[in-house]
Predict the structure.
Amino acid sequence: MGKVLVLFHSNTGNTRKMGEQVAAGAAEVPGTEVRVRSIDDANREDLAWCDGVALGGATNLGSMPWQLKKWWDSLPDEVWQSLDGKLGCAFSSSGGWGGGTELACLEMLIVLMNHGLVVFGVTDYVGKKHTLHYGAVQAGEPRTENEIASCRRLGQRMAEWIAVFVDGRKDLHPIARGYPRGSQH
Amino acid sequence: MGKVLVLFHSNTGNTRKMGEQVAAGAAEVPGTEVRVRSIDDANREDLAWCDGVALGGATNLGSMPWQLKKWWDSLPDEVWQSLDGKLGCAFSSSGGWGGGTELACLEMLIVLMNHGLVVFGVTDYVGKKHTLHYGAVQAGEPRTENEIASCRRLGQRMAEWIAVFVDGRKDLHPIARGYPRGSQH
Amino acid sequence: MGKVLVLFHSNTGNTRKMGEQVAAGAAEVPGTEVRVRSIDDANREDLAWCDGVALGGATNLGSMPWQLKKWWDSLPDEVWQSLDGKLGCAFSSSGGWGGGTELACLEMLIVLMNHGLVVFGVTDYVGKKHTLHYGAVQAGEPRTENEIASCRRLGQRMAEWIAVFVDGRKDLHPIARGYPRGSQH
Amino acid sequence: MGKVLVLFHSNTGNTRKMGEQVAAGAAEVPGTEVRVRSIDDANREDLAWCDGVALGGATNLGSMPWQLKKWWDSLPDEVWQSLDGKLGCAFSSSGGWGGGTELACLEMLIVLMNHGLVVFGVTDYVGKKHTLHYGAVQAGEPRTENEIASCRRLGQRMAEWIAVFVDGRKDLHPIARGYPRGSQH
């Protein structure tokens, strides 16, 4: 069983809604177990349990909210170097397009890489002019079909990589599965 | 006279269109002279001439096109450290939202900072859920009112900073001018 | 009088020491007033007072410490868009070379840009193979001549840009001053 | 057999020397085959062949050299989305500490992520105050014991992740192997 942790901080509820869609996408991949955890409830057991972390937070000043950073900064020393080789990805919502979501995702990926996670974006286009190359991003809450699809695809890809890398299910590789990958047009 | 160089590489014409809007925005500020130059025509004289560079390129693989990087990498050694203190900003168009425009702008700002330019984004929202905090970004060509406004505002801000910093026109400071700065709502 | 705010968070004292050197460098530029403030003591009056912010924090997981982010995230709404056009730069200390100092500086610059500050790095080499292109960086506390010089040069450049841009002292432009700019060799 | 491609551009020979050390590190992991290729010789067959790409280039203006970007920008369209799920990492050499190596590595990771690769840094410290959290970095050519060790460790980690993820060799996981991971002290 692949184990996906969707870990997030949400003030307004937008990031929580994104996280629920990420979780739903992950659950579509056979043999995947998912935990959705706010940082208020998550602990290091959740990190130890999972094969991969989908990390989400609002875009605050072009980077993650301090509460989310505090959660990571406050982990006990012995956690560091215990997470090597888990999978990682990111999602974020900002006040507007051009407002820093990609930069906030990048910062989350940097934190995950620092902990030894192997991180990814998604090549697929989920609709016309909408992709998630460095994580799922949007302005406000997930509302449009494309926005919802980008969250789901992120979770799905996470579950697929875990299936392929951890459980040896090469049949679940995105290329092997052969579903529509989309294009920018 | 404030001197703005809009410097770009464009394959499809989208970035050129963005650049023309950036130039139009700069020209709205009294006492501003603007040059719009493709890298095919620009040379180091243009760099020496200007007080600020608005740099634009498509988002290719999450960063600037190799042609644009080549232009900068190929400048003679003596140009480096001759541009200190000029202003800099960036604009980029990608195949889709979430496709890396903010990261491409960031890379352009990094190149400009390496040359000693002081770089900026824009706090203003130019419409509902549309801003340009790290440069003007969009998917495809500038089409919507918001997209066009974000290019114009970038150029305008460039010209304003030059007026304020280089020509001592404190009356042209964005805060002094008091126009609507917008919000994400 | 140019006004420089050196704003930092420091747990171990390393970043504080860097900040003191940054302040000393700024004070070398004629007509510069400097405040050195830990985030424990700094408030929005300090931000309103200054012409530029040199922002420093340890490199924690490749980005700034949560305490420093909290300080920025917790500013009242009305501060945002009141700082446009002030100068900004960054400094950081990590546990080791290759440990993320440049990325932490980049994140700090992103936060400053979000607030409308115009940000800069420094082209100068302060010694053999030691520069500060995106902020002053080091492993541990400032110990070597190069490390101390990089902090000082950062503060000096901040004060110079303020003198040039805010006070119209074009004679204090780094190029006009003509001091050794160094090279990588 | 795990297959590692060390792909680089080198003008001065420094990056080539780094690449040779990366390759040597990869070869230390049982069952690993390594190709070391300059972009002058590499082609898309090399990309198709490998399980992971260690990408290296000098730090030019805080990002990768235009020649390296050109190589990636010029790949035929059908390569894109054919590399999903391969491993990726980066290495870079700059003219000086603080000169942008981490930013150049970050840009290389962004390009690799755009192509669907899962990318990683290394948590290990390879000596006092020397690590490679976002790729192997250095000023000039690999000269000191730490610098050489950081290149080797990068290649070793790449080969380990391939062994674990692609070939199911869980005994080769860094944590299972139990060698010294080092600390910053």
Remarks:
- Strands of chain D lie at 2-8, 32-38, 52-58, 87-94, 118-119, 122-127, 130-132, 136-139.
- The radius of gyration of chain D is 15 Å.
- Chain D has one domain: 2-172.
- The longest helix of chain D spans residues 145-165.
